[in-house]
Amino acid sequence: MMRKFLIGGNWKMYKGARETEEFINTLKTSKVDISDIDVFIAPPFTSLPVAIELLSNSNYAVGAQNMFWEEEGAYTGEISPVFLKELGVEWVILGHSERRIYFGETDEGVRKKLKTALRLGLNVVICIGETEKEREEGKAEEIVKREIIEALKGAEVDPERIAFAYEPIWAIGTGKTARPEDAEEMHRIIRGSLGNKGEEVRVIYGGSVKPHNAEELLRQDNIDGALIGGASLDPVSFIEIIEAVRRV
Ligand code: 13P
Fold first, then answer.
1. What are the residues whose beta carbons fall under 8 Å from the beta carbon of 228, sequence distance 6 or more?
2. pTM for this structure?
3. Active site residues
């Protein structure tokens, strides 16, 4: 089963419109071929319009880092997925650990958001992963399986529209990457818990992916791409990681 590589740049709360424009101008000078890879950048909400406009004639897609599960209503401060669609957003990241930790995102919230996103035609990356303590206690497998089951309750696993990002929380922004063989083992477990569509679903890795370690991670059979934080903020390192995909 050939799964197409998926590379996402999760910019978190970095880069307003001006810096987004600078990044994209540099990205567009690169001749790296992404015709057979799915690549998106996920800037903050307010930078989405400029990103979409500047990337409209390219193979790069644009994603959002979050959305609300309702289409409209009295929800001060929330962003509707309908508005994201209207802008031309193609991907949305759901359940990132930073949203779970700092903003009280729950499995139930991820499930509701997933349902709405699929109904509206957005592609989704669902983030899952354990803390360092959970790993030490031997609970990593149990945690990711729970996150998957809870997110998918009542939803079809559509490999065209749903990808999972395994992001061990202890590896995010710490420079501590999971060893490729440990990540591979978790990806295998994740795929195994996705039922009969598991072989087709992309499971990408996130957590201190850098140009120097990307290739080894991406060479693992069950690692289908990367969700990149820090290294996606610099167009040069982002392009280097895409080039690593090309070598695999
Ligand atoms: P870093 O690449 O900065 O560790 O962040 C990973 C991440 O959280 C991607 O969603």
1. 7, 8, 9, 10, 206, 209, 238, 241
2. 0.97
3. 96, 167
